[in-house]
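Retro notes - structure team

What went well: the batch runner handled both jobs without manual restarts.
What didn't: labels got mixed up in the shared folder, which is why I'm recording both outputs here explicitly, each with its sequence directly above its tokens.

Job 1
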Amino acid sequence: MIEKPQRVRKAVLPAAGLGTRFLPATKAQPKEMLTVVDKPLIQYVVEECVASGIDNIIIVTGRGKNAIEDHFDSSPELESFLESKGKHELAELVHNIGNMVHFSYTRQKEALGLGHAVLVAKELVGDEPFAVLLGDVIIPGPRPATKELVEVYEATGKGAITVEDVPRARTGLYGIVDIEHANLPRWGERLMKIRDLVEKPKPAEAPSTLAITGRYMLPPEIFDCLERTEPGRGGEIQLTDALRLLAKETGLFAHIYDGKSYDAGDKLGFLKASVEIGLENSEFGDDFREYLRSLKL
């Protein structure tokens, strides 16, 4: 009998970076706590995990990241204050933030790359499949990208990463996948088998225009791949290099996401996310739209 793949219960959120692209805003606060409309970046990612059926989130932090832990901790004093002022909905909102899911934290003591950040979580993940979500990529919508990856793993037992089509002229900004058909009718053309991954190729040399988007569904074998990955520039262990090993040794899928993502890790992407998510806000979206129309650009 073929053993059924494990249910995916855990996710790793690397959040140890210094956020230098947002200085001076990130001098004294984590980049992951920058607010898009009315929520910090990392809360959008946590909510995506919850909507994907994940019940244990491991956040990899570093020095100066205590605000992340405080945000997802309980706050009985604030709740009591809001209740005393008759602000029951706000009190419930604050209560729910700390009770969405079980949180664990571990530290990346040195900034040694995304692959190293994932490897730091090995002890807490254990011998289980897990998702990895980059905290500065927001993927809104009713169908979470992470949920789609979880479904791929639970059906096939293979890892998968989210990719999206980008203009060929911009392939040099992303990790790009080299793919072939997976031939799995359930997903049709949206699921491809990865032959290789290329980091930031020149447009003429890119094997495709499908870019890695910041959502990963990984089997526990990735830890062995990471431990065998040689550090690159700056002594960093790159997750992409370990994924190349995983693709060759056990197989890896690319899932083409049908939706929009925001790379809020740079200033322009952050502004785009703020504007477009703000326009969808039920409280003030219509008024905001009228304001934007009134601007003489």
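Job 2
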Amino acid sequence: MPVSEEIKSFMKDNPDIEVVEVLIADINGIFRGKQMPASGLKKLAKNGVPFPITTTFLTTNGSNAEYTLDEYGSDPDRICMPVPGTLKRVPWATRPTAQIQVTMLNSDGTPFFMDPRAVLQRVLARYAEKGLRPVIALEYEFFLFDRGTIPPVPVSPPNGMAAASGANCYNMDVYYDFEGLMQEIENDCRAQGLDVIGLVCEYGNGQFEVNLQHTSNVEKACDDALLLKRAVKAVALKHGLLASFMAKPIFDEVGNGLHAHVSVLDEEGNNIFAGEDGEELLKHAVGGLLRTMPQATAFFAPNANSYRRFDPDWFAPVVPNWGENNRRLSVRLPLSDEVNRRFEHRVCGADVCPHLVVAAILAGAFHGLRDETDPGEPLGEFDLVDFDGVLPPRWRIALDVLEKSKIMRRYLGDDFVDLYLQVRRSEEEEFHRQISTADYEQYLRII
């Protein structure tokens, strides 16, 4: 359905809508945007809306990166056009509000190279050329904290029960302590068309996991992932809580991960990983993932805190390895029948941009399929990990590896990788210059 018809139908069904939030995803997995009267929707469908060109590649805190100012300091506007199917009601808003996503275009109408959606489209085009269609499902972990506490304090049950501190993985009693909040999250997600198929208590104190249904509409899966985070944070805030997808919010707890389950369909809709021949293709895809994992780490761990999560004592994968049904591994092959044969990519933190990490994952898998890459020997269900050849353990190292990469550049584009590095290097250096509380605790009196 054309966006103009979609808007007409939506306003007929929602005549009370007063304002619309216009949202665009940036390389940090954060929605930037502006609010406009509902009457502006028709004009938006026809003419789009201008956003500064740097909107898609701001630093995490919303600044223009220092290293980009020479080329992009004048910050001209670019037109952003609405994405079909993204006009939704905002159920948690205090006034009748809708939201719509937009994508940035160049002056000639082609996709802007730094828009995360455009990066993902480049990789998906490779699959389409071969008659292939990826299927993906994303799982997010997040913590609930008391609002306004630094360091953050895990939430206490709102029903007055004593907090069950420590690991409470899959504890249904703890889940039901927060049943009202979880039900509201699920209801608001479904009201926005997000297919939530699971909410569980996770391993950390105050940690939960939410799962989205698998789909072959990969762009929508990534859009939905960002909308999911937005809904969780908004509903938690209504309840006076902070929901955080920070990779490592507490030093002596597990971190928050983003796990991606991926299979690939052929032109007839059959899973290419099924059957004996499919097992060989699956191994090749895994081989490509392992080969490209170090150079893609800068996408899987996009900020300073991301690298604090890389702690093997807390189940975070730190070595490019693979095997059946082993959660210590970077690439796990879950229990499944032939129809659902897939790999699970477990490296990313929950702080990533889903469009970029999915693009990097799919690029690695495609490269492995193309080159018939050997993944090496798998580890067994109960095997421990040998910590040789670990992934880049610090932010600057990961950026250096990405800069020298060939495969990521080939699939994501030199123009994108170079500007991404400029933004991240500016952010890394700014963070490194900060003087933390730990500096004072360790050195102020002693030295």
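One thing worth noting from job 2: The two ends are 67 Å apart (CA to CA).
We'll revisit the folder naming next retro.
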